[in-house]
C-alpha cells in the first residue's frame, strides 16, 4: 500500500472501469475476481516468531454492524483480549455502523473506534426492505434501480472504509456476522473487494447463517418444509442473478479468508454444500470466562443487573 488516497483511488478507478450496470455484470465480475487471483494470494515469509513480531507492530480491526451490550459485542471484547495478549503492542480498531452508549461498558481502553453510518445492519440498512421484503421481477423498475443503488453504495463504502483501513495500516480484518447474515450486502461486497484488491487477510467469524431457519418457497414445497424465521432472506431466490450474489458473498471463499464457525454443522455445510476448502474452515465454540463471576463485589452485581435490564428492555 502506498498512500491511502492513491491506493483507494486506484481501487475505485478499477471498480468504476468495470461499468457494472446489471445484476449479470456484477455476477460476471465476481467470477472474474476468483478466476484471476494470484497463487498464492498472500504469503508470509519467515518463522512463527517472525510473524508474531510482525503482528505485534500491526493494526487489527474488528468489524460488525453495531456495538452494544449484546452477544456479538461481548464476543468482540473477548477476542480483543486474546489478540492483545497474543500480539502485545498491536493496535485494535472497532469499526461499526453504530456505537450505542451501553457499549462504553465493554469497549476496552485503548481501542480506536470508527463509526460509519453507511454500514448499519438489517432494519437500519436503507436497502434491506428492497432486498428482502420486496418481491422483485426481472426487468421491472425496482429490479433495475436496486442494482444501481446497491453498486453505488458499495463504491461509497469502499471509499470511506478503505481510506480508514489504509490510513491506519490495518493488516487484518476480523468480521463478526458481516458475511453470514445479509444485514448489509453493500458492506459485505465492499469488504470482499477491499480484501481482494488490497490483499488484506480476513478472519470471518460466523455465529449463524441466513440459511439456518430459512428456505425458499420452492424448497419448502418440494421438500415439505415448515415455515422458518429466516424465510424472508429467500424472498428473491427465484431470481438467480440476484440471489447468487448472496450465495457467493455469504460467506466469501478466498485463499486469504478463514471462516470460523461456532459448531461442526456449520463447518460441514460450508465444506460439503458451499464447496469451501476444509483447510480454511475452523470452529471456535462460544465460551464465557467464569472467573470474572467469582467473589463478585456488590458493585459488579449491580452493574450486571443494569446490563440485563438494558438487554431485556431493548435499551428503551
Question: Would you give an account of this structure?
Answer:
The protein has 316 residues and is of the alpha/beta class. The chain is 44% helix and 13% strand. Strands 3-2-1-4-5-6-7 form a seven-stranded parallel beta sheet, with helices on both faces. β6 (257-261), α10 (264-273) and β7 (281-283) form a beta-alpha-beta unit. The longest helix has 27 residues, at 141-167. It starts with a helix and ends with a helix. The model has no long low-confidence stretch (mean pLDDT 90).
Question: What key attributes describe this structure?
Answer:
alpha/beta, 11 helices
Shape: globular
Within the largest sheet, what's the order of strands? 3-2-1-4-5-6-7
DSSP strand (E) fraction?
5-15%
Number of strand elements = 7
Number of helices: 11
- Class by SSE composition: alpha/beta
Helix percent reads: 40-55%
Order of helices and strands: HHHEHEEHHEHEHHEHEH
Q: Detail the poorly predicted runs.
A: none
Calculate the terminal CA-CA distance, rounded to whole Å: 44 Å
> Strand count, sense and closure of the main sheet?
7 strands, parallel
Mean pLDDT: 90
* Gyration radius over CA: 20 Å
Topology summary:
Layout: H1 4-17, H2 23-35, H3 48-56, E1 59-67, H4 71-86, E2 91-99, E3 112-115, H5 128-132, H6 141-167, E4 170-176, H7 185-198, E5 202-206, H8 217-222, H9 240-249, E6 257-261, H10 264-273, E7 281-283, H11 298-312
Helix pairs in contact: 1-6, 2-9, 6-7
Amino acid at each position: 500500500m502506498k498512500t491511502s488516497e492513491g491506493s483507494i483511488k486506484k481501487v475505485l478507478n478499477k471498480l468504476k472501469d468495470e461499468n457494472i450496470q446489471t445484476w449479470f455484470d456484477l455476477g460476471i465480475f465476481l467470477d472474474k475476481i476468483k478466476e484471476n487471483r494470484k497463487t498464492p494470494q498472500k504469503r508470509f515469509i519467515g518463522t512463527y516468531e517472525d510473524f508474531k513480531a510482525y503482528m505485534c507492530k500491526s493494526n487489527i480491526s474488528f468489524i460488525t454492524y453495531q456495538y452494544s451490550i449484546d452477544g456479538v459485542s461481548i464476543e468482540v471484547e473477548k477476542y480483543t483480549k486474546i489478540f492483545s495478549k497474543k500480539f502485545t503492542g498491536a493496535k485494535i480498531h472497532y469499526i461499526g455502523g453504530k456505537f450505542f452508549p451501553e457499549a462504553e461498558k465493554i469497549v476496552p481502553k485503548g481501542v480506536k473506534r470508527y463509526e460509519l453510518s453507511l454500514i448499519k445492519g438489517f432494519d437500519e440498512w436503507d436497502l434491506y426492505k428492497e432486498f428482502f421484503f420486496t418481491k422483485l421481477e426481472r426487468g421491472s423498475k425496482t429490479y433495475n434501480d436496486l442494482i444501481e443503488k446497491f453498486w453505488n453504495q458499495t463504491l461509497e463504502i469502499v471509499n470511506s472504509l478503505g481510506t480508514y483501513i489504509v490510513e491506519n495500516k490495518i493488516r487484518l480484518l476480523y468480521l463478526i456476522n458481516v458475511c453470514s447474515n445479509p444485514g448489509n450486502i453493500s458492506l459485505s461486497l465492499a469488504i470482499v473487494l477491499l480484501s481482494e484488491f488490497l490483499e488484506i487477510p480476513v478472519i470471518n467469524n460466523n455465529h449463524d447463517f441466513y440459511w439456518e431457519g430459512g428456505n425458499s418457497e420452492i424448497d419448502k414445497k418440494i421438500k415439505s418444509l415448515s415455515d422458518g424465521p429466516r424465510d424472508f432472506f429467500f424472498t428473491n431466490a427465484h431470481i438467480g442473478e440476484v440471489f447468487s450474489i448472496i450465495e457467493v458473498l455469504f460467506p466469501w471463499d478466498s485463499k486469504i479468508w478463514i471462516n470460523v464457525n461456532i459448531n461442526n454443522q456449520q463447518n460441514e455445510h460450508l465444506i460439503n454444500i458451499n464447496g469451501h476448502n476444509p483447510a480454511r474452515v475452523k470452529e471456535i465454540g462460544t465460551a464465557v470466562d467464569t472467573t470474572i463471576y467469582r467473589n463478585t463485589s456488590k458493585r459488579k452485581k449491580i452493574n450486571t443487573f443494569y446490563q440485563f435490564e438494558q438487554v431485556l428492555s431493548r435499551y428503551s
